[in-house]
Model the fold of this input.
Amino acid sequence: MSEIPAKATESEDPSDGARAGVAGDSAVAGATGGAMGDAMTRPRGDARTELTNTPWGGTPAGASGDARPRTTGASTGDPTGTGTDAGTDIGTDIGADVHRATAKSPGGPRGGASVEPSVEPSGEPLGDAMWQSSPPGSIYDYIKVASFSIGADGLVDQWSLRAEQLFGISPERALGMDPIEAFFEPDQRERGQRKMAEILDGREWTGVVPFRMPAAEDGGPGDEGLAEVYVMPTTTEDGERAAVCIVVDVRTLRSIETDLAASQAIFGQSPFGFLLIDTDLRVRRANKRFASVFGGNVESHRGRTVHDYLPRSEAERVAATLRRVLETGDSITDMHVTGFIPGSDERRHWSINLYRVHSGSGRPIGIAWLGTDITSRRAAAREAAAARRNLALLNEAGARIGNSLDLETTARELLDVVVPGFCDLATVDLYQGLLAGDETPRALADGSAELRRVAFASAVSDAPFIGGPAPVAVGAVHHYPFNSPCADALRTARPQHVPAEDGGLIQSTLAVPMVAHDTVVGLAQFSRTKGSEPFGDRDRALAVELAARAAVCIDNARLYRREHERALILQRSLLPPGDPEASGLDIACRYLPGNAATEVGGDWFDVIELPGHRTALVVGDVMGRGLRAAVAMGELRTAVRTLALLDLEPAEVLSALDEIARGLGTPGGVQQATRAARQPRDADLSEVYLATCVYAVYDSVTRRCTFANAGHLPPVLVEPGESALMLDVPPGMPLGVGGEPFEEVEVELPEGALLALYTDGLVESRDHPLDEGLQAFVGALTDPSRPLEDVCDHVLNTLDTHHGEDDIALLMARVQGLPADSVGDWTLPREPRSVGRAREYARTQLTAWDLEPLVDTTELLVSELVTNALRYGEGEIRLRLLLDRTLVCEVWDAGLVQPRRRRARDTDEGGRGLQLVGLLSAAWGSRRTPAGKTVWFELPLPDGGTPLTDPAEALLSLF
Done:
């Protein structure tokens, strides 16, 4: 076996020197042939010539003493090129490779020579430092280096395992092969043979040689390559000359040079902090960016741990993560780390990426740490998050505040939004005058007017904070001192910061005035407890916006409350006061307005006394809500009473009401509405008022009731001993539609029957359809014999009347017909003697009724009316006296001309009869009948408390 001369070098730890540089650079460039630091280190002192134009060039033996390959790049870890000399290690390890990986021919190595250990000049052997095997992770894992030996005959006699890996030729095939013939192109073989002869003559040679792999076993052409060859002459045991060849793949070297440049760029120019951490979790190498942040130079960070850079808790967390990455190989991306840099108290944030790095053989050799300062990005993210949170809070406030038209509820809605999303404690105070319903509540100029605490919310507890101001109970009236920040906020309409009390739990408080339409309506206070972030400028602006939104909603609720109260007052003033009375009827009524969340409706009812002890019962509902609906209801109710006094038939009353309703929304009134209805137009800009109404006239003498309906719900009748039923009254069109006549239905009501008129609020709601409500109403009228007030209460308690969605009007009447002995009815012929008979009939009847004080007055007035019927009327004359709460006298005839009272002159002999009737009676009038007309007068009963007029005095007053 050939001897391999080698120069002794100092023993080095594989983890230091050249190997440390290779590992460091490979961590950056990648685990498979990355930047290798000074992986291409060659022996120092070489004088080498690289061939550029010829494949054969180099340095002949003796040209430079110890002719060996020299470095083509910087040494490991030393960019200046003066680093560790690893060339002898290359020779040593390659020699060891040849020694341990040689495939021998059957006859063994020629000459049977053995390799002897080299010795120092002093004669001492180099020991294990020279002949130790290369451990995994050495430089040879990254560069392709192979060795083989050539015998004296110029043929390959030893072939290493690395040569097999590099050339792809098995030892069995390589042994005995001529390297010139196998690897060189034909035109280069002659020159190669000359060089081989020189080498076998004992000359060393090095150079870059192009080669071609031998043909594959399948006959295909071999691959081309470029190798740097170092040939060292040797001698066999027989003294024959031989050679040892060391081959390096040049293309791999060039790739390593490129990776080395990239590694130097990362460690010297990267704007990101980079660390290489070894398996002991100590910094093996740091780049300049990292050193510029944490101080010192690059070398000063070698050997440090994460505890030298981060706080203890954070360092423990990061160290545990490093161990996990080293053990599992799972990379960590965007791990956030918090700490401080030397010379600054500002907390910094970094985003760390960690991944395990390996040697060329796959052995883990450490962890790569890539860090980016994200402090500004975190701050921007916090700002963006705060902006999004504030926007979300404003959106939530817009959705939740103002859903109720109630002052206190709106204030509580504000606190539901801000606690705990914005603050830990909040209160709302409103001016007492605002809650009392003042038109424009004004605060005192110094901001110390009385306020009422309407809402309070706390995310901590309901107990008062220790060290804070005295708590104010919800509902209590209080005021702030003149020199307090709260009074200043109310006075200036600007938010103020309230200093925290020493020893308390409150850290920061904002007093924000609630301003709506340039008017301060109250004060909102937002507080944060210790441990929370103090209020900033952004929070201040958000608090002002939230308070302003709530203030507008509170002001709207105030305006609504004012309108609602006015409409309710107006509506109640237009309804009959107390329990109305009627002749021949027992009346009970109920009116329930909607709740505060719904506007006042247009429901109404009325009981109107008509001549002849008749009664008009009216129930109606104006469509719409609010003050306008209440006003329209008042106008229609007034019109109904006016039309009823004209003693028109029910259908005629509804027809006239329909015209009036059509004129309510037209500036020109009824006539303008009538003319406009006849003209086609594209758009009707006038307001439309629609209403439903049922109008009934009950005659207590005949117990007959005439109904007319304008789109209203049907009346309900309960006869004694029978079930309740809905009367079949044609509904007709609602008032205000026009164009359709109304029908009348006459029904005879038995004694003791119960009649019910109502509005839709009683029988209809969102939860109960109309049909179900009507059936429930009919079913509730099971015992009509009970007192009428009890029947009303039973109906309201049985049905769903607490929904508050609409007003409810209920009018119930029990039939109590006029007794037969309270009616006097006579027919008189058309002759002068009928006047005397009429007086006699009246006198006799009044005497029977024990009404002697009314005899003289009644005789006089009856004489006047019968005389007028004889003079101006037609047909037979009918006299009727009716006794109930008053005395009514009626004179009937077939004439259609209505009597008209006129003022008689002093010289006139007649014309004073109707004046006399007006003076002596409590009321008088005339009405049309199907057969003519009726003239009537009414006298109060003697025990009624109304003084009677002396006929003599009345007669004298006419002159």
In short: The longest helix spans residues 537-574. The first strand starts at residue 145 and ends at 150. Residues 1-134, 681-686 have pLDDT under 50 and may be disordered. The two ends are 173 Å apart (CA to CA).
